[in-house]
Amino acid sequence: MVADVRLILFHKQSTSGRTRFLRFGSGLLAFEPLPALSALVEEGAAASSVRPHPAAALRAAEERLGLAGGSLKAEAEFYAEVETPAGAVPVLLAAFTSIDPPFDAAAQAGGQFIALTEARGLHPLELDLARRAYETILGG
Q1: pTM, whole model, 2 decimals?
Q2: What does the DSSP assignment read for 82-96?
Q3: pLDDT tens across 69-88, in order?
């Protein structure tokens, strides 16, 4: 994975609109959890106006999941930043482009697809990120 970038991965069914997030053993963020003492930066208060281009992060995620190139598409409307003891970490949102979620790839990576209502056990910071992501998805 590209250093210091985290992804929230989701699948939205084109016919029903059913939205599911890919949850890993460590939480919602691919592919490693945020360090302790991390805090979500308020919307519009990012430390920098320069945002990372998502291409490298998407490519790395596709490789890690064993998916073909183009299997993930960045949602440009979403951007979040988390302040960690080591500095700001960008969080990007990406959609699976397949008709159905890649359940096998998710399972092989130690993850599973969940509805937002199944996210209750996540860390409060990740719940807030999931809420922001869901609002973006609904608006798009």
Answers
A1: 0.92
A2: EEETTEEEEEEEEEE
A3: 999 999 999 999 999 998 88
